[in-house]
Write the C-alpha cells for this entry.
Amino acid sequence: MDIGIPRERLAHEHRVALTPAAVRELAQHRHRVFVESAAGAAAGHSDADYEAAGATIAYSRREVVGRAELLLGVGQPQRDEFAQFEAGQAVLTFWGLPTVTADDVEVLRERQVTAIGLEVVVDDDGKAPALMAMSEIAGSLAVVVGAGLLLNEFGGKGILLTGAPGVPPANTVILGTGVLGQAAARAAVGVGAEVMLLDADIGALRRVLGHLPRAVPTMIATPHHIERALASADVVIASPAARGERAPLLITRDMLRRMKPRSILMDFAIDMGGCAETSRPSYFPDPTYIEERVRHFCVPNLPTIVAQSATQALTNTVLPWVVELGDGIDAALKKNPMLRRGTYLHHGRCVMPQLAELFHWPMPAGAGA
C-alpha cells in the first residue's frame, strides 16, 4: 500500500506521525511510504533519515496526499484541508471531530473519507492507547509548566511549587484522575507539592491513591467540592475524560471568581472544547491569558513541545495499527475491533454513535461495534 506522512500544518505542532525506524519496518512489509520534506525536522528526524529507511521524500503536501491510500498524521487536520483529501482515502490522526461543525464533517462525507481518530481507538477495557501515551507525557509536563507559571517572571504569584524548609509548597488541585491526572499526581507528589485530587468516580480515586508514594486528600468532583478546592488552589490541572465527545463543563466563571488572584488554571480538555467556561485555545510563545484574575493555560497538544519524545511514544503505539491497515483498510477494520471503534467515518458514512447523535445523523445498524 502507498502510505503518506505529510508535514503537520497545525500551528506549533512539532511532532510527526512515525519515526524513520517505523518507516523502515513498513518498507520491510513492502509498503511504499511518502514523507513530505521536513515533516520530521522539529522532532529530530531529517529527510536523509527517512530516505535511508526506505521512504520517498515528496516536496509538496499535494504530492503526498495525491499518492497515498492511507494518510498518517498527528494533529487535527485544518478545515481547509478537508477538501484536499482524495476520494476514498483513509486518514489516521487525532481527529477530534466532535469539536468541528457539521458542515465541515459533511465535506469528509462527500469525499467518502475513512476517518480514524487516534483519540478514540480503544481496547475492550475502554482504554485509548495513543491518547494514553500522549496523556502520560502531558501529565508530567503539566507539573513542570505549572511550576514555571507560578514564577513572578512569567506573571505568577511567586510561589515555589515544591516549597522549601519552613516554606509551604503550592496547593495543586488535580481535577480528573485519568491517565493525564494520574501522571500529574505522581509528578506533583514526587516533587513535594501539596496535592488535592478530585474525580466523579470514587473507585478511580482509590486506584490513584494506591499508586502514589504518599497519601493525599481527595474529594468527589461535585460542583460544591470543585468550587471549594479551587478557592484554595494555586495551580489547577483539569483533565476530565472526554473521549469521542465534547468535554464536560465543570468549572464555571463564578467558581473562578472565588479563586485567588494570579492562580493558574491549566485546562487539558481544551482539545475537546475545554472544561471551563472561560477556556479557549492558547498557543506558544504567549500561552496564557487572564480571565477573572486567573491565569489560563489552555494549550492543545502540549506533548508537541517535547516532539522527539512524543513522536517516539506515539510511534510505539500506532505502528502495529499502520501495519494492519497497510494490508487493507476494510480488512483491518473488520478484523480489529479497536480500529473499528475508533472510526468516525467509513467511506464517508458515519459509523460512530456519539458523532451521529451529536450531528443528528442516521447510523447503520451495528456500526461502532
The chain has a mean pLDDT of 94. The chain has two domains: 2-126+307-359, 134-300.
